[in-house]
TrEMBL record:
Species of provenance: Pedococcus bigeumensis
GO molecular function, one term: peptidyl-prolyl cis-trans isomerase activity
EC number: 5.2.1.8
Transmembrane feature ranges: 34-53
Domain PPIase cyclophilin-type positions: 115-263
Pfam families per UniProt: Pro_isomerase
PROSITE patterns for this protein: CSA_PPIASE_2 (PS50072)
Record's protein name: peptidylprolyl isomerase
Keyword Isomerase in record: yes
Chain positions covered by the region annotation Disordered: 1-28, 59-91
Protein keywords: Isomerase, Membrane, Rotamase, Transmembrane, Transmembrane helix
Length: 268
């Protein structure tokens, strides 16, 4: 082999070595790019999973307020004992005939874990509402039911009547508004029915006004069916303890539950 041929062979070997080196470099670069893409995809997937979990957590409805028992964080309220556990279900009751209360006056003694609250019910002005309240009381519907709401700003009411603490669907019937003030004025001591935006959704929930309040008149207002004649100090001390968690509308920080309701008709 001549010198020229040896030099040519050497050049060919060098070219092959360079080609192999270049091929390996290209493969290494491609592997690095694939790794970057994989890492980026994993990061996106992880971010998506985290965001989905976060959104699902943020949009989960909060649990409805339930009756609580006094604890180290519950304000001590003089005269109150630990409330009972609420019922696991609410009874269904037939709708009472308003004629059973029309033109009549009743006294209702609401025994709570904080003492007795006495009500006078006006069947002359709100016969269907009073007939319903009396019927539910006689059916023992209110037994062990927590008063699930207190408001301490704007309007001032203690709301009770649902055995399931505001999460129930009522006694199985509803009825319309009676004796609602057109100006939305509800003086201290007023006993009235709670409802949804539907004016025909009156059922079991009622409220006691513990400080003069102006309530919305949209939809027809709220049925006044009686007054508090005794035990307002109980409602006031529950209100003074505030709302659980420090809000202005929600479950009472100092739990109060209805143990039983006894109703008698007042004779002329």
């Amino acid at each position: 082999m001549t010198r020229e041929q040896e030099r040519a062979a050497a050049r060919r070997r060098a070219v092959k070595v360079d080609a192999k080196r270049a091929q390996k470099e290209r493969e290494a670069q491609r592997n690095r790019q694939v790794a970057v893409v994989v890492i980026a995809v994993l990061a996106v997937v992880a971010g998506f999973v985290f965001l989905t979990a976060k959104l699902n957590n943020d949009t989960t409805p909060a649990a409805a307020p339930k009756a609580t028992t006094p604890s180290a964080t519950t304000p001590a309220v003089a005269g109150c004992s630990a409330p009972p556990a609420p019922p696991s279900a609410a009874a269904k009751v037939a709708k009472p005939d308003k004629a059973t209360a029309a033109g009549k006056t009743f006294t209702a003694v609401v025994t709570t874990n904080c003492g007795d609250i006495t009500l006078q019910l006006d069947g002359a002005k709100a016969p269907q509402t009073v007939a319903s309240f009396v019927g539910l009381a006689k059916a023992n519907y209110f037994a062990d039911s927590p008063c699930h709401r207190i408001t301490t700003e704007g309007i001032f009411v203690l709301q009770c009547g649902d055995p399931l603490g505001g999460t129930g669907t009522g006694p199985g019937y509803t009825y319309g508004i009676e004796n609602a003030p057109k100006d939305g004025t509800y003086p201290k001591g007023t006993l009235a029915m709670a409802r949804t935006t539907d004016p025909n959704s009156n059922a079991d929930q009622f409220f006691v006004v513990y400080k003069d309040s102006k309530l919305p008149t949209d939809g027809g207002g709220y049925s006044i069916f009686g007054t508090v004649t005794g035990g307002m100090d109980i409602v006031e001390k529950i209100a003074a303890a505030g709302v659980s968690g420090g809000a202005t509308d929600g479950a009472p920080a100092a739990p109060i539950s209805i143990l039983k309701v006894a109703v008698t008709e007042k004779k002329a």
